[in-house]
Amino acid sequence: MVALLSTSHAAWKSLEKRYASQSKTCILQLKNQLHNTKRGDLSISDFVDKITHIVDNLALTGKPDDDDDLITIIMNNVGLAYEVTVNSAQAQDTSISLDDFIGLLLSTEMQLNEQNSVLSESIATTFYAPQSKTNSSHDRGSFNSQRSSQNHQRLARSLNPSPQSNSSPSDNRQKC
Fold first, then answer.
1. How many CB atoms lie within 10 A of CB 48?
2. What is the model's pTM?
3. Phi-psi domain of 40 (left: phi exceeds 0; alpha: psi -120 through 50; beta: other)
4. Contacts 24+ apart (CB under 8 A), 9-17
5. How far apart, in Å, are the Cα atoms of 145 and each of 17, 39, 155, 157?
6. What percent of the chain shows pLDDT beyond 70?
7. More confident residue, 170 or 28
8. Is residue 30 assigned to a domain?
9. Which of 88, 109, 138, 146 is the most buried (most CB within 10 A)?
10. How many independent structural domains does the chain possess?
11. Is residue 157, in this structure, part of any structural domain at all?
């Protein structure tokens, strides 16, 4: 106990020893959390915010990570969609700054979102077929539609024959 110590120096040493182990545990947990943080479905900005929050907490413990370590962690966890961007950053002769790398990732994310938007619009228009407003029997779609409807009715009757002898006209339930 600190209260029983005779000097302030002894009290500070006791406190330092007590909280050093907690601090080491906290640092290990934060570093583990930092290295195991995956992007998953997060946007790049949300992912970077999550990483930055952990890094800020590490800095508060007195153990900040440098930008190169952060870039490596981000590179390893952004996913395959960003592989070209990661390879481009790794191929540079000089090391890229954290801000420049995040800028590249955000730019790539915008391009991917635009491509996905164009692709989904293209798919939607490919499968869109306006319905015919005419019901002419000469219309090929109308004829095929009528034929299909008649075939479905015949099939339904053959699978579920209504026993006329077992039911009265007012009673539509099948009797066993």
1. 20
2. 0.56
3. left
4. none
5. 84, 49, 15, 19
6. 64
7. 28
8. yes
9. 109
10. 1
11. no
Sign of the Cα pseudo-torsion (52, 56, 57, 59, in order): positive
Q: Position 131: which residue type? A: Q
75 in a structural domain: yes
Are 109 and 43 within 8 A, CB to CB? yes
Angstrom distance (rounded) from CA 50 to CA 111: 22
CA distances from residue 125 to 56, 113, 121, 122, 141 in whole angstroms, order as listed: 47, 18, 6, 5, 20
R_g of the chain, CA atoms, integer Å: 35
172 — pLDDT class (breaks 50, 70, 90) = very low
Domain that holds residue 92: 2-126
- Please report, as a single letter, which amino acid is at residue 106: L
Answer whether 59's CB lies under 8 Å from 26's CB. no
Q: Indicate the DSSP class of residue 61.
A: T
Supply the pLDDT for residue 168.
Answer: 47
Inside any domain, residue 173: no
Q: What is the four-CA torsion angle of 72, 78, 84, 85, rounded to 10 degrees?
A: -60
- As a whole number of angstroms, the distance between CA 112 and CA 104 comes to 12
